Amino acid sequence: MPIAYVLINSELGTDVDVISQIKKIFEDEGISSYEIQGVYGVFDIVIKISSDDEKLRNLITNKIRKIKQVQSTLTMMVIEK
After folding, report:
1. Which pTM value belongs to this model?
2. Is residue 64 a contact partner of residue 25, using CB atoms and an 8 Å limit?
3. DSSP assignment, residue 68?
């Protein structure tokens, strides 16, 4: 099953709210295989998510990136062995 790491920049002070919104999206979409953490550094939030390829693209492009407080994302798809 494809795995993606998504790095997110959010508006200052909104990371906890963005994490809550993303968890709700995953719950609504039936995604149970993920890890999400707030982090210090260049990015504010890191997600590791595992799902089928089309669902990953839809979640990232049409759901996560459309959250108002999300300023930018960087997605890294894991190369399958």
Report:
1. 0.90
2. yes
3. T
